[in-house]
């Protein structure tokens, strides 16, 4: 990624407080932020705006995050390669999550309760190759 380019992050999250916290933390760290409240809106926004990385909740209304990720990966070369970080409260031993992450690389899985905001921002930077 070019040094001067401001990375664009899409947050797909239906919980207002969590979404706002992610948004503030990422903006404070110099990222441009887009927001979608469900998987369908997230898919539409991702295809239209082509963010550099997507933070994606799994359990959401309209379309869940795993379905959104599958559809995005099938949509275009961009969709196949954009890094996605799945953020959820579901157990990491749930087979459908492990299977989805494995087949939809580059994607990563984080349990929300195990990661604080600063760690999530650091993981975003790591995935974008932006170590500071």
TrEMBL record:
The keyword Isomerase does not apply. Gene3D superfamilies: 3.40.50.2300. PROSITE patterns: RESPONSE_REGULATORY. Pfam families: Response_reg. The keyword Plastid does not apply. Keywords: Phosphoprotein, Two-component regulatory system. This is Response regulatory domain-containing protein. It comes from Candidatus Staskawiczbacteria bacterium RIFCSPHIGHO2_12_FULL_38_11.
């Amino acid at each position: 990624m070019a040094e001067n380019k401001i990375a664009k992050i899409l947050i797909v999250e239906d919980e207002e407080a969590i979404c706002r916290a992610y948004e503030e933390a990422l903006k404070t760290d110099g990222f441009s932020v887009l927001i979608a409240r469900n998987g369908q809106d997230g898919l539409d926004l991702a295809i239209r705006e082509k963010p550099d990385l997507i933070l994606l909740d799994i359990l959401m209304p309209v379309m869940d995050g795993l379905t959104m990720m599958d559809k995005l990966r099938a949509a275009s070369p961009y969709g196949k390669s954009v890094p996605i970080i799945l953020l959820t409260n579901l157990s990491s031993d749930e087979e459908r999550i492990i299977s989805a992450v494995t087949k939809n690389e580059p994607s990563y899985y984080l349990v929300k309760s195990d990661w604080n905001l600063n760690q999530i921002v650091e993981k975003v930077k790591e995935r974008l190759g932006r170590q500071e």
